[in-house]
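[job 4471] stage=fold_predict status=RUNNING
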Amino acid sequence: MLAFAVRNHKLVSKNKSRPRLRSGWALIRVRLAGICNTDVEILRGYHNFRGTPGHEFVGEITELRGVSAATKKKWLGRRVCGEINVSCSAYDFKPICSFCKRGWKTHCARRTVLGIVNHDGAFAEYLALPMENLHIVPDSVTDEQAVFVEPLAAACEILDQIDVKKLHSAAVLGDGKLAQLIALVLKTAVPRAVVYGKHEKKLAFARRAGIATKKVWGNASDLKRSKDSFALLVEATGSPTGLAMALQMTEPRGTLVLKSTFHGAAPVETWPIVVKEITVVGSRCGPLAKAIALLRSGAVDPTPLITCTFPLADAAAAIRFAQQPGVMKVLLRA
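[job 4471] inference complete, writing structure tokens
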């Protein structure tokens, strides 16, 4: 099969064998894969990953191993998306780790992560995942919607972590792809969501979805100009410089949710956390079932964020294009 791998901070194509299946695993033919900021950071050295990147995908099951005839009948040929963290149980490790015993499979001590940690990902014609990681995509949800399920689930995770019922408003710092999805999800649960960003064209996406926006400059001058504060602030700039402004904009005893992943350190003064008694919450992967439900109901439609779709063979050009100013979601069609 055709696949792409990280080498010397670039994507390079290679012909390789299709993944070998463990018992209880599925071979998935990738239909669409999405490029996200984490993939760009992987090229810059994030997690020192050297395999095939890509963790946002929709595909169809072409082969199953070690499952019943009934399971084959239900799943074979179905469109699926998948949880990206592969835990102890999928590898049949014994004993399973303490995190898996508590039901925290996304924090499994021996996990691999699709396209990020020791597990080849979706920038290929085929990928392999355990059945326990897969979710069937309803017929009413298009491929172009389904490819957003994983990042949309990461946005939904915030609603599982934070009780937003008493909030009148919430803010998202950042105007990129994940920030936009977070705002769309918050809009379903909070009366007013505001997106702060420095790119007018990107902010326009949020406004068209009925979300308030405010322009910032993305530098130290924002700290002097901005007087806004929120009980819930989500930092999703994808940049280490966003954290200082996020701390300033989180009101006393408010909650700051951190969503950015990037290669390198973030300089931060911790005194605002102490003085304002801010609760800081790390937030990563989320509930795919809830993301699929939002797509199926029509409450969220992420497809306006799609800028361009490239054939898989042009993945290297696609990831370069994805880093250009003003570009939002770039997809690969296998």
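[job 4471] summary: The first strand starts at residue 2 and ends at 7.
[job 4471] exit 0
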